[in-house]
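User: Hi! I'm working on a homework problem where we have to compare a predicted structure to a textbook description. Could you give me the structure for the chain below?
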Amino acid sequence: MKRRVLIGAGSLLGAAVLLPTQAQTVVKVRMAYFEDFAPMSFKTPKGDMAGIFIETLNHIAKASGVAFQHSGFPWQRAQNYIKAGELDALCAWNSVERKEYLWFASTPVIEQTMGIYHRPKDARVQAIRSVQDMRALAQGSYLGNGYAKQYLEPDLIKWQADMTSVLRLVAAESLDIFVEGELIGKAAIEKHGLQGKLAFTPLPFLDPVRSYFGLRKSFDKAQHIVERVDGALGQARKSGALGIIYKKYV
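Assistant: Happy to help. Predicted C-alpha coordinates:
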Protein backbone atom coordinates (compact mmCIF):
# COMPACT_ATOMS: atom_id res chain seq x y z
CA MET A 1 0.00 0.00 0.00
CA LYS A 2 1.28 3.43 -0.85
CA ARG A 3 2.36 5.44 2.15
CA ARG A 4 0.42 8.58 3.02
CA VAL A 5 2.13 11.69 4.29
CA LEU A 6 0.11 13.51 6.93
CA ILE A 7 0.35 17.31 6.99
CA GLY A 8 -0.90 19.24 10.02
CA ALA A 9 -3.75 21.72 9.66
CA GLY A 10 -1.53 24.48 11.01
CA SER A 11 0.96 24.08 8.18
CA LEU A 12 -0.82 26.29 5.63
CA LEU A 13 0.89 29.41 6.94
CA GLY A 14 1.89 30.63 3.50
CA ALA A 15 -1.71 30.69 2.27
CA ALA A 16 -2.78 33.25 4.84
CA VAL A 17 -1.05 36.11 3.05
CA LEU A 18 -2.54 35.48 -0.40
CA LEU A 19 -4.86 38.14 -1.81
CA PRO A 20 -8.39 37.15 -2.94
CA THR A 21 -7.66 38.30 -6.51
CA GLN A 22 -4.83 35.78 -6.69
CA ALA A 23 -6.86 32.81 -5.49
CA GLN A 24 -7.48 31.36 -8.96
CA THR A 25 -3.75 31.26 -9.77
CA VAL A 26 -2.43 29.98 -6.43
CA VAL A 27 -0.47 26.72 -6.54
CA LYS A 28 -0.22 24.45 -3.49
CA VAL A 29 3.29 23.09 -2.87
CA ARG A 30 3.91 20.52 -0.13
CA MET A 31 7.33 21.13 1.42
CA ALA A 32 9.43 18.39 3.03
CA TYR A 33 12.06 19.47 5.58
CA PHE A 34 14.67 17.96 7.84
CA GLU A 35 12.78 18.03 11.13
CA ASP A 36 15.86 18.58 13.33
CA PHE A 37 17.85 21.18 11.41
CA ALA A 38 17.64 24.35 13.51
CA PRO A 39 17.78 27.22 12.79
CA MET A 40 16.77 26.28 9.21
CA SER A 41 13.89 23.90 9.93
CA PHE A 42 12.69 22.31 13.14
CA LYS A 43 9.56 21.18 14.93
CA THR A 44 8.04 23.33 17.65
CA PRO A 45 6.69 21.75 20.86
CA LYS A 46 3.24 21.84 19.20
CA GLY A 47 4.55 19.85 16.24
CA ASP A 48 4.49 22.69 13.69
CA MET A 49 7.49 23.45 11.50
CA ALA A 50 9.49 26.63 12.12
CA GLY A 51 12.81 28.16 11.13
CA ILE A 52 14.51 30.24 8.44
CA PHE A 53 13.32 28.06 5.56
CA ILE A 54 9.70 28.12 6.68
CA GLU A 55 9.53 31.81 7.49
CA THR A 56 11.29 32.76 4.24
CA LEU A 57 8.83 30.82 2.08
CA ASN A 58 5.85 32.15 4.01
CA HIS A 59 7.18 35.66 3.40
CA ILE A 60 7.32 35.19 -0.39
CA ALA A 61 4.05 33.23 -0.67
CA LYS A 62 2.01 36.19 -1.90
CA ALA A 63 4.61 37.40 -4.41
CA SER A 64 5.20 33.92 -5.83
CA GLY A 65 1.56 32.83 -5.88
CA VAL A 66 2.36 29.66 -3.99
CA ALA A 67 0.66 28.27 -0.88
CA PHE A 68 3.34 26.35 1.00
CA GLN A 69 2.51 23.42 3.26
CA HIS A 70 5.29 22.54 5.72
CA SER A 71 6.11 19.07 7.07
CA GLY A 72 9.24 17.68 8.73
CA PHE A 73 10.78 14.20 8.80
CA PRO A 74 14.16 12.50 9.16
CA TRP A 75 16.10 13.93 6.22
CA GLN A 76 16.51 10.82 4.10
CA ARG A 77 12.81 10.02 4.45
CA ALA A 78 11.83 13.57 3.52
CA GLN A 79 13.77 13.31 0.27
CA ASN A 80 12.32 9.88 -0.48
CA TYR A 81 8.79 11.28 -0.16
CA ILE A 82 9.61 13.84 -2.85
CA LYS A 83 11.16 11.25 -5.15
CA ALA A 84 7.97 9.17 -4.77
CA GLY A 85 5.77 12.19 -5.57
CA GLU A 86 4.09 12.12 -2.15
CA LEU A 87 5.54 15.55 -1.37
CA ASP A 88 6.75 18.24 -3.73
CA ALA A 89 9.69 20.40 -2.71
CA LEU A 90 12.54 21.11 -0.31
CA CYS A 91 15.14 23.69 0.62
CA ALA A 92 18.61 22.20 0.34
CA TRP A 93 21.97 22.30 -1.35
CA ASN A 94 21.52 21.63 -5.07
CA SER A 95 23.66 18.50 -5.30
CA VAL A 96 24.18 16.62 -8.55
CA GLU A 97 21.98 13.79 -7.26
CA ARG A 98 19.11 16.13 -6.34
CA LYS A 99 19.28 17.89 -9.71
CA GLU A 100 18.23 14.60 -11.29
CA TYR A 101 14.71 14.93 -9.88
CA LEU A 102 14.37 18.60 -8.83
CA TRP A 103 14.34 21.98 -10.56
CA PHE A 104 16.20 24.49 -8.37
CA ALA A 105 15.85 28.24 -8.02
CA SER A 106 19.04 30.21 -8.72
CA THR A 107 18.69 32.52 -5.71
CA PRO A 108 19.81 30.82 -2.47
CA VAL A 109 17.61 30.97 0.60
CA ILE A 110 20.75 31.13 2.75
CA GLU A 111 24.51 30.48 2.60
CA GLN A 112 26.74 29.03 5.32
CA THR A 113 30.46 28.67 5.96
CA MET A 114 31.54 25.03 6.03
CA GLY A 115 33.95 23.54 8.53
CA ILE A 116 34.46 20.72 11.00
CA TYR A 117 33.08 20.06 14.45
CA HIS A 118 35.57 18.39 16.76
CA ARG A 119 36.64 18.14 20.38
CA PRO A 120 38.23 21.43 21.50
CA LYS A 121 41.57 19.87 22.54
CA ASP A 122 42.03 17.75 19.42
CA ALA A 123 45.05 19.47 17.84
CA ARG A 124 45.04 17.15 14.84
CA VAL A 125 42.37 19.24 13.10
CA GLN A 126 44.83 22.12 12.69
CA ALA A 127 46.75 20.07 10.13
CA ILE A 128 43.72 19.60 7.84
CA ARG A 129 44.30 21.43 4.56
CA SER A 130 42.33 19.15 2.20
CA VAL A 131 39.68 16.46 2.11
CA GLN A 132 42.46 13.88 1.89
CA ASP A 133 43.92 15.11 5.19
CA MET A 134 40.72 14.00 6.91
CA ARG A 135 41.49 10.35 6.22
CA ALA A 136 43.54 10.04 9.41
CA LEU A 137 40.48 10.94 11.51
CA ALA A 138 37.22 9.09 12.11
CA GLN A 139 34.56 11.01 10.18
CA GLY A 140 30.82 10.95 10.72
CA SER A 141 27.75 12.38 9.02
CA TYR A 142 23.99 11.80 8.82
CA LEU A 143 21.95 9.96 6.20
CA GLY A 144 20.76 12.22 3.40
CA ASN A 145 23.63 14.70 3.64
CA GLY A 146 24.18 15.45 -0.06
CA TYR A 147 27.10 17.80 0.53
CA ALA A 148 29.10 15.09 2.30
CA LYS A 149 28.29 12.54 -0.41
CA GLN A 150 29.48 14.83 -3.21
CA TYR A 151 32.38 16.80 -1.73
CA LEU A 152 33.88 14.45 0.85
CA GLU A 153 34.83 10.76 0.68
CA PRO A 154 31.56 9.00 1.52
CA ASP A 155 33.10 5.53 1.71
CA LEU A 156 35.22 6.70 4.65
CA ILE A 157 32.30 8.26 6.54
CA LYS A 158 30.47 6.48 9.34
CA TRP A 159 26.84 7.31 8.56
CA GLN A 160 24.36 7.91 11.39
CA ALA A 161 20.60 8.32 11.47
CA ASP A 162 20.68 11.99 12.41
CA MET A 163 22.99 14.92 13.11
CA THR A 164 22.49 14.79 16.89
CA SER A 165 23.89 11.26 16.97
CA VAL A 166 26.97 12.38 15.00
CA LEU A 167 27.71 15.28 17.33
CA ARG A 168 27.31 13.12 20.43
CA LEU A 169 29.66 10.48 19.01
CA VAL A 170 32.30 13.13 18.34
CA ALA A 171 31.95 14.46 21.89
CA ALA A 172 32.22 10.89 23.24
CA GLU A 173 35.42 10.26 21.21
CA SER A 174 33.75 7.55 19.11
CA LEU A 175 34.21 9.84 16.10
CA ASP A 176 36.71 12.63 15.54
CA ILE A 177 35.21 15.09 13.06
CA PHE A 178 31.94 16.09 11.42
CA VAL A 179 31.76 18.44 8.42
CA GLU A 180 28.75 20.77 8.56
CA GLY A 181 27.64 24.39 8.20
CA GLU A 182 28.48 26.78 11.00
CA LEU A 183 24.90 27.82 11.86
CA ILE A 184 23.43 24.32 11.84
CA GLY A 185 25.99 22.67 14.09
CA LYS A 186 26.06 25.47 16.65
CA ALA A 187 22.28 25.38 17.03
CA ALA A 188 22.35 21.61 17.58
CA ILE A 189 25.15 21.92 20.14
CA GLU A 190 23.16 24.44 22.15
CA LYS A 191 19.95 22.43 21.90
CA HIS A 192 21.52 19.22 23.18
CA GLY A 193 23.77 20.69 25.87
CA LEU A 194 27.09 19.97 24.17
CA GLN A 195 28.61 23.43 24.78
CA GLY A 196 32.26 23.14 25.75
CA LYS A 197 32.47 19.60 24.42
CA LEU A 198 32.66 20.55 20.74
CA ALA A 199 34.34 23.31 18.73
CA PHE A 200 33.98 24.54 15.13
CA THR A 201 36.91 25.21 12.79
CA PRO A 202 36.18 26.72 9.33
CA LEU A 203 37.75 24.97 6.36
CA PRO A 204 38.50 27.53 3.61
CA PHE A 205 39.11 24.84 1.00
CA LEU A 206 35.46 23.72 1.25
CA ASP A 207 32.85 25.58 -0.78
CA PRO A 208 30.15 27.34 1.25
CA VAL A 209 26.89 25.43 1.38
CA ARG A 210 23.97 27.26 -0.22
CA SER A 211 20.40 26.13 0.33
CA TYR A 212 17.99 26.55 -2.58
CA PHE A 213 14.29 25.97 -3.17
CA GLY A 214 13.88 22.82 -5.25
CA LEU A 215 10.65 21.47 -6.80
CA ARG A 216 10.24 17.97 -8.21
CA LYS A 217 10.40 17.87 -12.01
CA SER A 218 7.21 15.79 -12.22
CA PHE A 219 5.18 18.64 -10.66
CA ASP A 220 2.86 20.38 -13.14
CA LYS A 221 4.56 23.45 -14.68
CA ALA A 222 7.47 22.94 -12.28
CA GLN A 223 9.96 25.19 -14.06
CA HIS A 224 7.48 28.06 -14.25
CA ILE A 225 6.72 27.80 -10.53
CA VAL A 226 10.43 27.70 -9.68
CA GLU A 227 10.92 30.87 -11.73
CA ARG A 228 8.15 32.59 -9.77
CA VAL A 229 9.68 31.53 -6.45
CA ASP A 230 13.14 32.57 -7.62
CA GLY A 231 11.91 36.03 -8.59
CA ALA A 232 10.18 36.50 -5.24
CA LEU A 233 13.31 35.39 -3.37
CA GLY A 234 15.42 37.85 -5.33
CA GLN A 235 13.07 40.70 -4.51
CA ALA A 236 13.02 39.76 -0.83
CA ARG A 237 16.81 39.65 -0.74
CA LYS A 238 17.16 43.08 -2.40
CA SER A 239 14.60 44.63 -0.06
CA GLY A 240 16.46 43.38 3.03
CA ALA A 241 13.53 41.23 4.15
CA LEU A 242 15.57 38.01 4.12
CA GLY A 243 18.26 39.61 6.26
CA ILE A 244 15.65 40.54 8.86
CA ILE A 245 14.43 36.95 8.97
CA TYR A 246 17.98 35.59 9.37
CA LYS A 247 18.73 37.90 12.30
CA LYS A 248 15.77 36.47 14.22
CA TYR A 249 17.42 33.06 14.30
CA VAL A 250 21.16 33.72 14.32
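For your comparison, note the following. The longest helix spans residues 222-239. The chain has eight helices and 14 strands. Good luck with the assignment!
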